[in-house]
Amino acid sequence: MSDATPSRTYESATARIEEIIRRLDSSEAGLRETLDLCREGRSLVEFCAGELEAVGQGLDELRLEELVARLEADRRPSATPAPAPSPTAAVTGPGGRDDLPEPGL
């Protein structure tokens, strides 16, 4: 698999890494083939690391957009009217006490 392959995906790269590992574990590869497989494997691992980093950044951006949306929703005025004052609030004195003077005094 060439590094310049435009259709490389994370999944195809990890599959190839597994093939390389199996070949190296078999002890059937010669010295030159081992070197070539190690180079290819390193390149594939670097590619996979880059893909994981890109996906991680994408997830961070999604979470950021979600947070911004929630913050904006919290800033919008509520469509629900404020609760009406209780009927006793109108007849109590300062501080909510029932010490209003009687009318006419």
What's the quick description here?
This protein has 105 residues and is mostly helical. The chain has helices at 10-25, 31-75.
The mean pLDDT is: 81
What string gives the helices and strands in order?
Answer: HH
- Biggest sheet character: none
Q: Runs with pLDDT <50, length 5+? A: none
General form: rod-shaped
Please give the alpha-carbon distance between the first and last residues. Answer: 101 Å
- Helical percent range? 55-70%
Structural class, from helix and strand content? mainly alpha
Strand content: under 5%
Number of helices: 2
**What is the radius of gyration?**
35 Å
Number of DSSP strand runs: 0
Descriptive notes:
By secondary structure, this protein is an all-alpha fold. It has 2 helices and no strands. The chain has helices at residues 10-25, 31-75. Helix 1 (10-25) runs antiparallel to helix 2 (31-75). The longest helix has 45 residues, at 31-75.
Structure characteristics:
105 residues; mainly alpha; 2 helices; 58% helix; rod-shaped
Topology diagram in text:
Blueprint (H helix, E strand, L loop, with lengths): L9 H16 L5 H45 L30
Helix pairs in contact: 1-2
